[in-house]
Write a structure and sequence with these properties.
The protein has 362 residues and is α+β, with helices and mostly antiparallel strands. It has two domains: 141 residues; 117 residues, Jelly Rolls, CATH 2.60.120. It is built from three helices and 14 strands. The longest helix has 41 residues.
């Protein structure tokens, strides 16, 4: 009894310490898992049932985090965004968005985001001992996770279109049903229209004899028609865009408010662009917002006002002349900062070069 009384306080303190440390580790794991699962939900592709993108579904992100709350309740769930980090580990902010994990900027607008942006979810909870021991203050446990999300994926085909053989106009054979040998064929009854009975009776009672004799039928002998010679239809010659007749490009160049790329058309033919795709750092300029307002290629201009990280230029299908030419993109301010997201893709639509991309990254 004496030994048990001496050991009992030590055992109680030890067991209580194990319980408290286990609670602390469990709460820490819950907070860490909540921020990780919420960031994974926000980085999902597509749109959930709410009709908004995952990275804009603030309630869905917080519900995902709260499902990981075990043995605790979260004090704060902050959601914010950034452009990633530099080589030195510093965050790259988005226009008018505070990238600090302590900030809550959800939801974010569609016109300020682009592919490669990150969603950051920070979850915090408080740990307090079950028993009040001395002046131990509540311990705040914080965990933040960031994930990159995509808003769109431009797809550029490089394969030539393949033809297919149409179905023949001859119908397929239908098997004929063979009657049973023991079956007796039955002729269908002949139906007599009731509507003509009165008229037939009238003709029988009062027959009429035609008095007019029809003139003899004239027969015309057709003259010999010369057989037309068959002229083969013209065959379009496919243009080669590879090898010695390739279509290449130069490096991206920046001067004041212009982003430029040279295009080298060695095919010997004037080509037509099926689409023009461009990416630029739209939230860093003088204002700092940066808007695309004009495009020029061999004197063919497009004018508009685009404020977006990436876009297929609407209703712009310029001709690409032979030799060297340059496509130029004019912005409303100087292009002050390049972040590596810049890209120009001109897709050719001529036969033989269909879906051939002139991509600044290749």
């Amino acid at each position: 009894m004496v030994e048990f009384m001496l050991v009992l306080p030590v055992m109680i303190v030890l067991m209580y310490g194990i319980v408290e440390v286990s609670r602390l580790v469990f709460i820490f794991a819950s907070v860490s898992n909540a921020s990780r699962q919420a960031a994974r939900y926000g980085a999902g592709s597509g749109e959930p049932n709410t009709g908004v993108a995952y990275f804009q579904d603030c309630d869905g992100i917080r519900d995902t985090a709260n499902r990981s709350a075990i043995l605790t309740e979260f004090n704060e769930i902050n959601i914010t965004y950034d452009r990633g980090v530099t080589e030195d580990g510093e965050q790259i902010p988005i226009l008018d968005i505070d990238p600090s994990p302590d900030a809550d900027t959800c939801p974010i607008g569609d016109n300020v985001i682009r592919n490669g942006d990150r969603i950051i979810v920070q979850v915090s909870a408080s740990y307090e001992p079950i028993l009040e021991i001395g002046n131990i203050e509540p311990l705040e446990i914080v965990s933040a996770n960031a994930r990159t999300f995509l808003i769109s994926v431009p797809i550029f085909g490089s394969a030539f279109p393949t033809g297919f053989k149409a179905e023949t106009a001859t119908p397929s054979r239908v098997p004929t049903r063979t009657p049973d040998e023991n079956a007796t064929p039955t002729e269908p009854p002949t139906s007599v229209p009731t509507s003509n009975l009165t008229f037939e009776a009238y003709l029988t009672q009062f027959p009429r004899t035609p008095t007019n004799t029809l003139p003899p039928t004239l027969t015309f002998t057709p003259s010999a028609t010369p057989t037309a010679s068959q002229v083969p239809p013209p065959t379009a010659t496919a243009i080669l865009c590879t090898g010695d007749y390739n279509v290449g490009h130069g490096a991206l160049e920046f001067e004041d408010n212009i982003m430029r790329m040279e295009i080298f058309n060695n095919t010997g033919h004037t080509l037509t662009a099926a689409s023009v795709y461009v990416e630029w750092n739209h939230d860093t300029g003088g204002n700092p917002s940066l808007r695309l307002q004009q495009i020029l290629l061999a004197g063919q201009a497009w004018t508009g006002d685009l404020f977006s990280p990436s876009a297929f230029v609407p209703a712009y299908y310029p001709f690409i002349p032979t030799g060297a030419s340059a496509i130029e993109f004019y912005f409303d301010q100087n292009y002050a900062f390049q972040d590596g997201a810049e890209r120009i893709v001109v897709t050719i639509g001529n036969p033989g070069c269909v879906n051939y991309p002139v991509d600044s990254r290749k």
